[in-house]
Amino acid sequence: MNGFAGHGWALFLFAAVCALITVHLLAVRRTAGSSLTAAVVLTLAVAAIPALRGEPPHYVTGVALTAGGVVAVVWARGRSRRHRSARRSALADYEAGTAAVPLFAALAERDRLAAELHDVAAHRLTGIVVAAGAALRLADRVRTGDALRHADEAGREAVRELERLTELDATAAGFTEVDALAAAHAVDYRRTVDKAPAGSTEATYRVVREALTNAARYAAGATVRVRIEPADDQDKPLRAGGDHLFVVTVTDDGGTAVEPGLGTGRGLAGLAATVTATGGTFRAGPVGQGRREGWLVRASLPAATVLPLRRWPLWRGTAALDYALVALAIALSLGASLLSADVPTPFGGLLPALVTVVLSGLHAVPLAWRSRAPGRALAAVLSALLLWWACDRAGWTQPPVSDIFLVYGWVELTLVHSVGVRLPWRRGLCAPLAVAAVGGLALASGSGITGSRTAAGAVLAGVLALPALAVWSWGRRTARRRERLRAADARRRVLLDGDADAAVSAQRLLFATALRDTALRHARAVVAAAEEGDLRAVREEARAGLTVLRNLLSGLRAGDDADDGPPPTVSGITALAARYGAVVRYVGARRPLPAAMEVFAYRTASALIAVGATLTVRTLPDGVEVSGPAPAVPAVERRLRALADAAGGTLSTTDSGAVRVWLPEAFP
Predict the structure, then answer these.
(1) Nearest to 639, CA basis, from 84, 78, 31
(2) At residue 124, does pLDDT exceed 80?
(3) Considering Cα of 79, then 84, then 90, then 92, what sign does the dihedral take?
(4) Strand ranges inside 193-342, DSSP E
(5) What secondary structure letter does DSSP report for 307?
(6) Which residues contact 408 (CB under 8 A, 6 or more apart)?
(7) Residue 596 in contact with residue 566, Cβ under 8 Å?
(8) Which among 591, 614, 617 has a CA at the least distance from the CA of 602?
(9) By CB count within 10 A, which of 97, 288, 349, 599 is most buried?
(10) For the chain, what is the mean pLDDT?
(11) Are strands 623-629 and 614-620 parallel, antiparallel or unpaired?
(12) Does the global pTM surpass 0.85?
């Protein structure tokens, strides 16, 4: 063999070991792109050593293939270690931070109830005060009767809505409720949008309700127009971010303020937060000039969400190791033959060489399906082995199939293990038996077999069944261990959700107690005064209700906040954003997620948050996407890329300047 001698072999081995160590460290500490580039460069450097020493081209090619296969596996194992280390770190943060989950769940429920309280009570009670005040000033019997009937109806509605705030389930308002609201106020109303997400219709209802309430307070006698229409060209920049929009506008042409001091001071700010949280924009301000100066409220809201396209890199999760095994199988089968000194003699000519190359690929490539479809991958490998046996019988291949199975039977065993991990045992039990049968046939065709090849094949199949069954059992144990870990995680989640639900229920109980002693008591007194025909008492009770409502809301805003940071979960992103003056929009059905994934989403959001930024958290069928404005600081982008890489996800940017980080649910 024309190979290395003396110091040449020592230099080659030293370079190979250094390359493997370097590749492993880079795969553990760097992102996939940079570490893969380094792996390719180091592989070429190792292959350059025999080339510089003047070795034959086939020998250099064999070194390159063999080194590439080994480096690929080492790189994939380093990637796996990187993912495991990231997952352990995420789980540690999750365990340390979950104690804050019940507290922040209670705080979030408190904020939700406060917003609902403002919208519901302020709207009903304000209308009662305005109607009663106007009737008392005019001293008209008809207006007085109308005001009393309105107070009775609106008061009863206020009582029902205030009592609803403490219920467990609250139905989001839709366009039907918006239509009814506009009809009740007899405004100039037009709607040309038929469908929208629940969050957008709920925000629409709140915008229209708050705008009509403010018009009744500050623009008596004005003409009020409400329009709900598709977005025009000025909203295209937002539409490019992934959403189709519609616009809600409420305008009045100016009027006179009545019954001053009815507001709570947080209506427009609460609307802006609500609209922004859905992914829209909000503005409000005066329009017109002079005596007829009016007011405009405008909100752009998503009409339909377009889920982004994701890039599925080959190095994501277990796919990295699968493709690395493909490279190793091809490298060992072809590379080892090319390292021989008498090439192309082992291939036996052009046709056998071509057949051997094709069969080697057919035997190796199905390893890429190891994680996704191990049963089909094993069937493809065994079919390639049977085809190799048929070509061997026809004299078209070299080396024989018996040698191939002896040297590369690890391919079949690897897939048997994957079958044990991923398929039910009733279906997976056929895998080791099939490998034993085909392997016995391949080994019995070898030149060293004398006597009955059928009997030899049966005996060899029985011998091969033992290691094949052992590897399959190993896979089954791995599957059971993973299932136990998933079950333990599910139990932890159930306990944690129970604690959070208990904290939310306790917050609702406190809230209900406060309501009974304040706004709800005055709302019932309004109804009683209306039934007695005492319009002056109606107005006083409604004004008193608004006053205690303002005090209650102020007390809620001044409540004790958590001193520690939010829990590292998807829900905790809301509290984190509030601390930085940012807003979070949630898209998609909320569902329980793996603990590590919750932490990765939280870390990504914390890296993206800036003052005034708007983040979007999309819950997708196969993962979570966190998006927001592209960071101006390169270090932040590098951190985001590292986070996505450690979680097995991707980072991409859009034409509008946003950055998207996709995190897969199936953690590597």
Answers:
(1) 31
(2) no
(3) negative
(4) 224-230, 243-252, 281-287, 294-305
(5) P
(6) 329, 332, 333, 363
(7) no
(8) 617
(9) 599
(10) 79
(11) antiparallel
(12) no
